[in-house]
Amino acid sequence: MDTLFHGVLGAVACSTTGLPGWRRGPVRSDGRRRVADWTLPAAFAFGLFPDLASLGIHFATDLFTGNGVRWHGIPDFVFFLYNVTHSLLGIGLGYALLVAWKRTLWLPALAWPLHVLVDVPTHGAGVFMTPLFWPFSDLRFQGWSWWLSPWIFYGGWLTLLALWLLVLILRLSWRKPT
Ligand SMILES: [Zn+2]
């Protein structure tokens, strides 16, 4: 799916403001509701990360050098980074290092594997099929390209809207126990 979709999905699925907060949402140690929740922007960023750290570099340099955004002439190192950020090996190593560094990252960092999980069925035949088993195997699942299927694109965003509405309904139904 598109990169922004992954960010918004990560935020709803992997932050305490989103669904993991269930009815209470982010809470402080004294049981009161937390206003600012760091896991929200962190999960959003981890949702964007696999694309930003690969294709994002290519598009940013293209824009910077005044070439506009081009889908051709993508350099090999960008594909290498795409393989790293979209493979089980890269995710496993990256996630382990992140959680070893800061244990509390375990929840927002899950937005990274979630991004790749969503990419697998929504990327059809072509160079952007998800390289899940890189570098051990080139086996890739041929999914349905979201950029060619409006029903996947709009269906995905409607699902996100429904998930955020669910969060809102859950939160409104929460009463602090007295
Ligand atoms: Zn991706």
Layout of strands and helices, then pairs:
Blueprint: H1 3-13, H2 39-52, H3 55-64, H4 76-85, H5 88-101, H6 111-122, H7 150-172
The structure holds zinc ion.
The site of zinc ion has 5 residues, from helix 2 and helix 6.
Describe this structure in words.
With 178 residues, the protein is an all-alpha fold. It has one domain. Helices cover 53% and strands 0% of the residues. It has 7 helices and no strands. The longest helix is centred in the last third of the chain and has 23 residues. The radius of gyration is 18 Å and the shape is globular. The N and C termini lie far apart (44 Å). The structure holds zinc ion. Zinc ion (ZN) binds next to helix 2 and helix 6. Zinc ion binds next to helix 2 and helix 6.
